[in-house]
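Researcher: Here's the sequence for the chain we discussed earlier.
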Amino acid sequence: MRLADLTAIALLGTERVELPPVRAGTAIGDLQSQLDFSRRESALLSAAALTAAYERAGVLPLEDHLPVPTACEAESRQQVGVRAGVLLQRMLGGEFSNLLPEWLEQSAALGALAPPELLPALLELGAKSSALRDAILPVIGERGRWLAAQNPGWSWVEGVQEDDGVWHTGATAARSLFLTRLRRSDADRARDLLMSTWNEESPEDRATFLNALGINLSPADEAFLESALDDRRKEVRRAASALLGRLPSSALAQRMVARARPLLRFVPGESGSIVRLKRATPAMIDVTLPQTCDKATQRDGVELKPPHGMGEKAFWLIQILEVTPLEQWKREFGAGPEEILTASLHGEWKTELTEAWKRAAIRQSNPEWAEAILDAFSEAGPDPAFRPLLDLLSIERREARVTRWLVERSRPELCGVAVAQSTHRWSEGFSRSVLEWLRRLAEQPSMDWQLRSELKNLAARIHPKLLPEASLGWPVDSAGWAFWSKGCDEMWSVVHFRHEMLTALQQSI
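Model: Thanks. This is the structure I predict for it:
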């Protein structure tokens, strides 16, 4: 009786199918013949148990004919201490995972390695998250690179090599990492390598690799990016257009200037006169919407169909202005960003102009316009552009601006968004200002669920010197504590774990 036959009988039922006869004279047959076949169900189950054990025991192990891999080179650096390794294991398991980048960064700075037993989890994490690969590489050591070579799923580690052979023979993840790292050290060589294999790349890989040119982007990349505007893949064309739009001197940017200039006219303001009973009029920007979006305009990245709720021509206008160099308008209008933005608020198309200036400042990485936009529009309330605009400012100017809002006690929702979207590691002074503001805020009843849920993320940015005191001095007896207590408890948990993590890492060396 084979296990497959017994399984089929179990599915059909012993009342409908007879058990097959026992083959006497065999080891398994002699055992099965001792069963009581008058009790069909019992006999079936017993026969299945015997047969399954017999068949499993008789399976020969697979033979590995591959050569034994070369032994891993000896490590030249020591690994982190036991406690730091335990905390890393917890983060890899899902606890306080937002602190994992800091663990990797601090370990690399100390020259320490992750525990060997956690290398598979780190390599798997790198396979899933390209953003963490550069941070993972310094802590896996020789053993981690050796281990990655044994598993094709971890081939991304090959990208750390400086040999061009990785580009020609590696997997996509390894090639992407190689290109990104090479772009930082030798931008021209990285671009030339990409050009050498461009026609053989898959459409998906072309889109992936082209984004790497955003690192150290320069006019030397323009000719290649211009040719990519004719690619069959939409994602490739979009990426090329976005990169060319960051080069103010590019031919694409100048084509956008030619399209944009007839669309905007700066109308200076006029002062009033009591004698003539003339009212003062503010400066404004007169807008003429584009009438067509031809093939050449679409080739340069202007999409034809607008999102729901936006007019077609208004959408074209926003996209054209987004790529037009912002310095063009300072020369054209003879006015600075503040004056231009103020004038944009007076007229029929203020919503579209506001959106265009935000997009242009972000795409062109213009801190002067970003700061002017934050001054002009931040009081309008939370905005998806708020964080990327803040990110364009230097850390010092960013912290000074947000601190001013906190001290002036601007609208709590504005301050909450500004603090939540200040995603850099905070200075000691800024950390203290934010904690003081939060303590004041926690005294009052609130319904700001978003900020409350964000508190645990803020704990990852507080300056390390303030971690021991971050959970002290909170208004636990105030009227607002019933609302804020849950978020603060979550924040303190992160604070305590982070303090323990940093202490354990320092003690590793």
